[in-house]
Amino acid sequence: MAAVRKIRNWSKCYKDMYDNILDQKIAHIIQCVDAPNNTLFEIIDKIRKEYPSIDPELVQIIIQGELDRHMSAPTCTCCGAKAHKKYSKKKECVTTIGTIVIQCPYYACPKCKNVHTPYEDALNLRDGKYQYDVQKIASLFGAKETFDEAAEMMNEIYRFGISADTVHKLTNQVADEISLEEITPTSQEIYKIIEDISEENYRRPVLVFSADGAMVPIRTEDKGQPHHWREAKGIRGYLLDKDKIVHLLSWHQISNVTEFRGFLAELRDKDIIPLDKIRLCFVGDGADWIWDCVKDYFPTCRQVLDYFHCSEHLHDFAKHQFVGSKKADEWIEQTKVRLFHNNASHSHARFEPVAFINLP
Question: What angle do CA 64, 68, 73 make, to 5 degrees?
Fold first, then answer.
């Protein structure tokens, strides 16, 4: 009996210690939640920084309680009348700390009949069950791996049960909202990089842009519409100075000529490229539409046909220029070497001279 009493005493002691820790934890989580001042994305981000592993039900109780405590019937934003509560609906929110279910009230304005969802608005909830923190993870994985592999990794780590199709949709939604300004350095950052690379050099560094495209199969989102092919264009910008290459920006996007021109126009209009600090060069595959676009927006830019796109046509040229395969093969190999070393003037062929550059 004495041993049992001793165990009970220790058990009560441990329970009191745990209750103490839990009280402190709850107080801290209330501060992290700070509803309705924080969105659900901000709440999850704060909590995950403090608690890598946490019971989502505890977070759910605190979020619900704080919203109920601080939020009252809203005033209609259209007519100013006080809205009346009509019903409540459970909103299932799948997050990176687990599934949270919020009881969300719906209000209707008696005058203009507008419907208000103050809890959903305050938490900035996404349509559907997967919330913005999940979308962030999906887009990070989806940008680096196939959607099947991204879904598999997310399910292994977070136990979501998310499908590859859902990862695809979440990733595309992020991509649709991203602007060129968000993926490029600011003009101040580019100026600083140029100053660093130009230090103690009397010549301005070369800012090289390279672009190329490839046709890719596109899955049509609209029901009943066939899949089709579109061109995905990749663009990279880097500073070149002697043997030094400094990456500045890069992106790839499915686009047509009009959209591509829009990218160049935005680069020029936002004054991202300091033309007085660099020598501008554009490396392309020789397509007329690329040269025309570049010339329209950056007329002083030097246009360069890259080595690889030029060399792939040497065989066709040699077939018509030389009689006998041996002579043609010799000329092809010699010309490739000369072009690779930027010695186009010694390539004996009946085409107009053009500048060449090797892609890094």
Answer: 135
**Could you give the CA distance from residue 171 to residue 45 in angstroms, rounded to a whole number?**
19
Pair 256, 340 in one domain: no
Q: Per-residue pLDDT tens for 59-102?
A: 999 999 999 999 988 888 888 888 888 999 999 999 999 999 99
Tell me the per-residue pLDDT of 301-347, one tens digit each, with 9 for 90 and over.
Answer: 998 888 888 888 788 888 777 776 778 888 888 888 888 877 766 55
Contact 355, 305 (CB under 8 A): yes
Tell me how crowded residue 301 is: count the other CB atoms within 10 A of its CB: 18
Average pLDDT, the chain: 85
Determine the Cα–Cα distance for residues 151 and 171; give it in Å rounded to an integer.
Answer: 11
Residues 330, 322 contacting (CB under 8 angstroms) = no
Looking at the fold, whether 27 and 117 belong to one and the same domain comes out as: yes
Report helix, strand or coil for 106. Answer: strand
Residue 40: exposure state from Cβ atoms within 10 A (0-12, 13-18, ≥19): buried
Number of domains comprising the chain: 4
**If we measure between CA atoms, which residue out of 348, 343, 345 comes closest to residue 330?**
348
Does 319 lie in the same domain as 297?
no
Q: What is the pTM of this model?
A: 0.67
Q: What are the φ/ψ torsions at residue 98 (nearest 5 degrees)?
A: 130, -175
Per 3-state DSSP, what percentage of the chain is helix, strand, and coil (rounded to 5)?
Answer: 50, 20, 30
Residue matched to tokens 């199709």:
165
Structural domain span for residue 156: 133-177
